[in-house]
Amino acid sequence: MITKKDFGKTEKGESVALYTIENSSGTAVDVITYGATLNAVRTADRNGEFADIIMGFDTIEGHEKYSNYQGMTVGRYANRIANGEFAVDGEKYELVKNEKGITCLHGGGELSHAVWSAIITDDSSIEMSYESPDGAMGFPGKVDFKVSFTLYEDNSLKIDYFAVSDKKTVINMTNHSYFNLAGKGDILGHKLKINADAFTPTDENSIPTGELRPVEGTPFDFRQFKTIGDEIYADDVQLTQCRGYDHNFCLNEGDGPVASAYDPESGRLLEVYTDLPGVQLYCGNFLDGTRPGKGGEPLIRHCGFCLETQFYPNTPNVPSFPQCTYGAGEKYESTTVFKFGVYNE
User: Is 27 within 8 Å of 155 (Cβ atoms)?
Assistant: First the structure.
């Protein structure tokens, strides 16, 4: 079942709509047209009690004034591009440098702060679309983007991404939800597992060095369930310079979930499936309680964790990484699934 209601207007006067998809078990997701944003996920704990497990905002004003990409669709290029520049076939492109005046972060925020068009495709699916003009944020090509959200009876949320450009360009899309499976407090007591034998260490500007470093023997070893807070403050330069985890993990091949997390107290479980080569773990390290979230509650440090499925950061400038350059008319297509359930220890 899908319902639609008004979510207010942007500062520019654009109308924003909120769509709710609900299945027969009561699991529900809210998606708004501003940023094609996953605004809420209401799912049950082991006692059947429902809570919203997405950190974010109740109003469009919150998203415009305070957002750190909470729940938003991110692109054209998710994550960072070093020095805000890259080349295609020898032609250099200068991008918006929206992080410290040095880095292009999340494509300059274009897709995340645009109002998308939306259609209901069936009783469990919504498709959103947005056209990015040639040269937007410095990127080549006019690109047609689509993102669809489908909620199934097994409590899995499938996000399908699609893009096609009229010029050769780079495309890397993700969803930037901050999950808190308890629905409150911080996520340091959550258990996390990531199916990755290596991660990409970064420099002081959070740009990958190009190394694929084994996780074994480091605080980045999540190959078995580990409490997020156990080593988040370890004496490791990779953690101290980011104030915690903010790193891409190089996913192993396989059919199971690429990542899983659960809250021991409530039992709520999240499993992530994707066809992409990487996932960025970010734990809200730079939130400081000064931004009001849902219900006016402050967004405190580590109030949520992100599992952003993606191509690796700065891929256009690192030939050894899996590449995401697409020719004119070539389709970018990708799928990520967030499956919600209960973990039985």
Answer: yes
Query: Looking at the DSSP assignment, which residues form a beta bridge with residue 249?
Result: 199, 279
pTM of the model: 0.97
Coil, helix or strand at residue 226? strand
For residue 135, give the 3-state DSSP assignment. Answer: coil
Residue 291's Cβ-count burial label (10 Å; 0-12, 13-18, 19+) is middle
Q: Which residues are annotated as catalytic? A: 176, 308
Residue 28 CB contacts under 8 Å (≥ 6 apart), including other chains: 20, 21, 22, 40, 41, 42, 151
Q: Please give the average pLDDT of every successive group of 10 residues along the chain, which has 345 residues.
A: 98 98 98 98 98 98 97 98 97 97 97 98 98 98 98 98 98 98 98 98 97 98 98 97 97 95 98 98 97 97 98 98 98 98 90
Half-sphere exposure of 202 (CA within 13 A, CB side): 26
Say how far apart CA 38 and CA 32 lie, in whole Å: 7
